[in-house]
Amino acid sequence: MNKAMQTLAVLILAMFTVSAMAGGSYKKQKDIVDTAVSAGSFNTLVAAVKAAGLVDTLKGDGPFTVFAPTDEAFAKLPAGTVENLLKPENKDQLAAILTYHVVSGKVKAKDVVKLNSATTVQGGDVNIMIKDGGVVLNGNSNVVKTDIGTSNGVIHVIDTVILPPATP
């Protein structure tokens, strides 16, 4: 085989490898932010994470456990709440609410059910209880889907936004 044929063979092999990787035979696991974006049911959460300046943090190494409210969970808040929180002047308050949904470390569902509470990145504790066979946070937010794996942690989907305790 001459030099030109060897070069062509290497190029074809490289193109095949790249094509196969792009086609799904090799998939790198997405981080928390990219997983939320691709799910399609966390548009409000993603917008809030961007407005609070937390994208780089949640794309970081982690690991993190995120209790992720769906768009429907955000819709349960009083009218105008989300729009108000997304304003630049409310960035700190928004960041506090969002980091209250994040626990340091990778806490899978089998571990969550053994806890009574968990300390959040925000600093406050989230109360955890088992009710009717499911996990409930702070007495009113149901975990509706668990253990969505990401490259930097795990996501548990919740049906109600949880709010940090008021500071005195």
Structure at a glance:
The protein is α+β, with helices and mostly antiparallel strands and 168 residues long.
Could you give the count of β-strands?
Answer: 7
Number of helices: 8
Mean pLDDT comes to 85
End-to-end Cα distance: 79 Å
Order the strands across the largest sheet as they lie in space. 2-1-7-6-5-4-3
Strand content: 15-25%
Low-confidence stretches: 4-26
Structural class: alpha+beta
Helix content: 25-40%
Shape: globular
Give me the secondary-structure topology.
Elements: H1 3-25, H2 32-39, H3 43-51, H4 55-58, E1 64-69, H5 71-75, H6 81-85, H7 91-99, E2 102-104, H8 109-112, E3 117-119, E4 125-131, E5 134-137, E6 141-150, E7 153-158
Parallel strand pairs: 1-7
Antiparallel strand pairs: 1-2, 3-4, 4-5, 5-6, 6-7
Helix pairs in contact: 3-7
Describe this structure in words.
With 168 residues, the chain is α+β, with helices and mostly antiparallel strands. The chain has helices at 3-25, 32-39, 43-51, 55-58, 71-75, 81-85, 91-99, 109-112, and strands at residues 64-69, 102-104, 117-119, 125-131, 134-137, 141-150, 153-158. The chain has a 7-stranded mixed sheet with strand order 2-1-7-6-5-4-3. It starts with a helix and ends in a 10-residue tail after the last strand.
